[in-house]
């Protein structure tokens, strides 16, 4: 591998891989994408991430970086010329708030979302839906605070760390909405997030890599099979 | 020993309130915390390592949460919370990075090189998500799950034993974010193991971590921040006693 060669081990359907890809696109970094086969783990993946054996793994000049949010921060810090957009906000307080909400999205929001897909029976599903509603409302408020009137969580005219952390879930969110027959993001309940979601999905660093919803829904059915009636 | 304790108390008071006059003019830093919590102590360790004066406010988290806590951490209602000039930040490792980003004097807690920073963040996250969660459940979780959680925690320690190798600290020659994140392992774990009679980490199986914990706890600044051993032991005895009697 050349001194500055970049490889990304991942899968088209993974939220976490998408985060790394968006960050690479934002910085106009060329990379080789190594698609993992569903159901098995490649030698390279196991060797590069022996601790977790999970994707994404970014390999830069032969050195592996693991964990999606850590990869995004690494990309921001390793490629930081003034001609490239900054992914993390510049002010330490805004950085901290972005990190706080990114952790909330992974540790709380996504856990509730996933429990809709794994819910056994309507009662459990209803509880999970209510929880996601509540948590999404918090994110609506967070957006208003963080964006400071700008179109993105980043508080700037371009997408940043927190946009990536949450936006990478939009495909899966849509799949869950269709499956549950319930909208979490809409113009009435979450006007700001609704608008933000549109702009995020149309961003040039996002649009080419956002998975097709029908393809994702099909994949979801494989990952989360419905129990037999 | 009595003399040492008095010195410690005076030192702590000076750190916290002796510079209040100066603090009001320039910055106001407050920490909402819990004396026995390793998460809370992480924040205090970093502030003291960097020589940043702050006001400490003990929170009755398990009893009555104060209006201040509810105002500054409405999402999680937990400690630690850092309040800097009226603006609050929650989640101990987020706070640690904030302190690092904001105050440029004193020792650094994260490496400068982007790759080394990514590694430090990786291991700090590993400590929190793999080891701390399992430890918590191994000692205080539902009885039926404790054996499984002990194995998880044990596995986590094996990775950490390998990672530290013969480095003095996870951060190299000086204490860094991973050492701070692993404070429970360095200090609390020994006490909890003694009180509970349950051992996950032995000196024989984990000689690197044992050596590291001695260096960590022995650090002049860290040792002043750590809660007193007897007080912690008394705190831990209560739940174990009731677990024993409930069979």
UniProtKB/TrEMBL annotation, chain A:
<dbReference type="GO" id="GO:0006749">
    <property type="term" value="P:glutathione metabolic process"/>
</dbReference>
<dbReference type="InterPro" id="IPR036249">
    <property type="entry name" value="Thioredoxin-like_sf"/>
</dbReference>
<keyword id="KW-0963">Cytoplasm</keyword>
<dbReference type="InterPro" id="IPR045073">
    <property type="entry name" value="Omega/Tau-like"/>
</dbReference>
<keyword id="KW-0808">Transferase</keyword>
<feature type="domain" description="GST C-terminal">
    <location>
        <begin position="91"/>
        <end position="223"/>
    </location>
</feature>
<dbReference type="GO" id="GO:0009407">
    <property type="term" value="P:toxin catabolic process"/>
</dbReference>
<feature type="domain" description="GST N-terminal">
    <location>
        <begin position="4"/>
        <end position="83"/>
    </location>
</feature>
<dbReference type="InterPro" id="IPR045074">
    <property type="entry name" value="GST_C_Tau"/>
</dbReference>
<dbReference type="InterPro" id="IPR040079">
    <property type="entry name" value="Glutathione_S-Trfase"/>
</dbReference>
<comment type="similarity">
    <text>Belongs to the GST superfamily. Tau family.</text>
</comment>
<keyword id="KW-0216">Detoxification</keyword>
<dbReference type="Pfam" id="PF00043">
    <property type="entry name" value="GST_C"/>
</dbReference>
<dbReference type="InterPro" id="IPR004046">
    <property type="entry name" value="GST_C"/>
</dbReference>
<dbReference type="GO" id="GO:0005829">
    <property type="term" value="C:cytosol"/>
</dbReference>
<dbReference type="InterPro" id="IPR004045">
    <property type="entry name" value="Glutathione_S-Trfase_N"/>
</dbReference>
<dbReference type="InterPro" id="IPR010987">
    <property type="entry name" value="Glutathione-S-Trfase_C-like"/>
</dbReference>
<dbReference type="InterPro" id="IPR036282">
    <property type="entry name" value="Glutathione-S-Trfase_C_sf"/>
</dbReference>
<protein>
    <recommendedName>
        <fullName>glutathione transferase</fullName>
        <ecNumber>2.5.1.18</ecNumber>
    </recommendedName>
</protein>
<dbReference type="Pfam" id="PF02798">
    <property type="entry name" value="GST_N"/>
</dbReference>
<dbReference type="GO" id="GO:0004364">
    <property type="term" value="F:glutathione transferase activity"/>
</dbReference>
TrEMBL record, chain B:
<dbReference type="InterPro" id="IPR045074">
    <property type="entry name" value="GST_C_Tau"/>
</dbReference>
<dbReference type="GO" id="GO:0009407">
    <property type="term" value="P:toxin catabolic process"/>
</dbReference>
<dbReference type="Pfam" id="PF00043">
    <property type="entry name" value="GST_C"/>
</dbReference>
<feature type="domain" description="GST C-terminal">
    <location>
        <begin position="113"/>
        <end position="240"/>
    </location>
</feature>
<dbReference type="Pfam" id="PF02798">
    <property type="entry name" value="GST_N"/>
</dbReference>
<feature type="region of interest" description="Disordered">
    <location>
        <begin position="1"/>
        <end position="22"/>
    </location>
</feature>
<dbReference type="GO" id="GO:0004364">
    <property type="term" value="F:glutathione transferase activity"/>
</dbReference>
<keyword id="KW-0216">Detoxification</keyword>
<protein>
    <recommendedName>
        <fullName>glutathione transferase</fullName>
        <ecNumber>2.5.1.18</ecNumber>
    </recommendedName>
</protein>
<dbReference type="InterPro" id="IPR004045">
    <property type="entry name" value="Glutathione_S-Trfase_N"/>
</dbReference>
<dbReference type="InterPro" id="IPR004046">
    <property type="entry name" value="GST_C"/>
</dbReference>
<dbReference type="InterPro" id="IPR036282">
    <property type="entry name" value="Glutathione-S-Trfase_C_sf"/>
</dbReference>
<dbReference type="InterPro" id="IPR040079">
    <property type="entry name" value="Glutathione_S-Trfase"/>
</dbReference>
<dbReference type="GO" id="GO:0005829">
    <property type="term" value="C:cytosol"/>
</dbReference>
<keyword id="KW-0963">Cytoplasm</keyword>
<comment type="similarity">
    <text>Belongs to the GST superfamily. Tau family.</text>
</comment>
<keyword id="KW-0808">Transferase</keyword>
<dbReference type="GO" id="GO:0006749">
    <property type="term" value="P:glutathione metabolic process"/>
</dbReference>
<dbReference type="InterPro" id="IPR036249">
    <property type="entry name" value="Thioredoxin-like_sf"/>
</dbReference>
<dbReference type="InterPro" id="IPR045073">
    <property type="entry name" value="Omega/Tau-like"/>
</dbReference>
<feature type="domain" description="GST N-terminal">
    <location>
        <begin position="27"/>
        <end position="107"/>
    </location>
</feature>
<dbReference type="InterPro" id="IPR010987">
    <property type="entry name" value="Glutathione-S-Trfase_C-like"/>
</dbReference>
């Amino acid at each position: 591998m050349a001194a500055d060669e970049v490889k990304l081990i991942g899968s088209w359907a993974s939220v976490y891989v998408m985060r790394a890809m968006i960050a690479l696109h934002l910085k106009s970094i060329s990379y080789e994408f190594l698609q993992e086969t569903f159901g098995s783990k490649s030698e390279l993946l196991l060797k590069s991430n022996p601790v977790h054996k999970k994707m994404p793994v970014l390999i830069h000049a032969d050195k592996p970086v693991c964990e999606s949010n850590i990869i995004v921060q690494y990309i921001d810090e390793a490629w930081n010329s003034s001609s490239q957009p900054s992914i993390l906000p510049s002010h330490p307080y805004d950085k901290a708030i972005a990190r706080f909400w990114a952790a909330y999205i992974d540790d709380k929001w996504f856990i509730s979302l996933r429990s809709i897909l794994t819910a056994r029976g309507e009662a459990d599903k209803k509880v999970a839906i209510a929880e996601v509603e509540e948590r999404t409302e918090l994110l609506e408020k967070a957006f208003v605070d963080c964006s400071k009137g700008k179109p993105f969580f980043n508080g700037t005219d371009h997408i940043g760390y927190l946009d990536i952390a949450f936006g990478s879930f939009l495909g899966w969110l849509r799949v869950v909405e269709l499956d549950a027959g319930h909208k979490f993001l809409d113009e009435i309940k979450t006007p700001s997030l609704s608008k933000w979601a549109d702009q995020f999905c149309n961003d040039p660093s996002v649009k080419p890599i956002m998975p097709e919803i029908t393809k994702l829904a099909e994949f979801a059915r494989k990952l989360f099979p419905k129990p037999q009636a | 020993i009595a003399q040492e304790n008095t010195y410690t108390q005076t030192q702590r008071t000076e750190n916290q309130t002796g510079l209040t006059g100066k603090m009001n003019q320039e910055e106001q830093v407050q920490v909402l915390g819990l004396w026995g919590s390793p998460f809370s102590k992480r924040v205090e360790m970093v502030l003291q390592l960097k020589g940043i004066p702050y006001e400490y406010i003990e929170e009755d988290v398990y009893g009555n949460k104060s209006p201040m806590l509810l105002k500054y951490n409405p999402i999680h209602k937990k400690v630690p919370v850092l309040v800097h000039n009226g603006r609050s930040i929650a989640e101990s490792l987020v706070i640690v990075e904030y302190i690092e980003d904001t105050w440029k004097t004193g020792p650094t807690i994260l490496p400068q090189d982007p790759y080394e920073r990514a590694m430090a963040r990786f291991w700090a996250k590993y400590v929190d998500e793999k080891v701390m969660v399992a430890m918590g459940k191994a000692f205080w979780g539902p009885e039926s799950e404790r054996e499984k959680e002990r194995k998880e925690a044990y596995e986590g320690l094996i990775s950490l034993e390998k990672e530290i190798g013969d480095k003095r600290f996870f951060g190299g020659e000086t204490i860094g974010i991973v050492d701070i994140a692993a404070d429970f392992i360095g200090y609390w774990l020994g006490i909890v193991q003694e009180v509970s009679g349950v051992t996950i980490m032995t000196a024989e199986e984990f000689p690197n971590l044992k050596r590291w914990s001695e260096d960590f706890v022995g650090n002049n600044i860290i040792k002043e921040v750590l809660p007193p051993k007897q007080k912690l032991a008394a705190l831990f005895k209560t739940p174990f006693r009731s677990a024993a009697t409930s069979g």
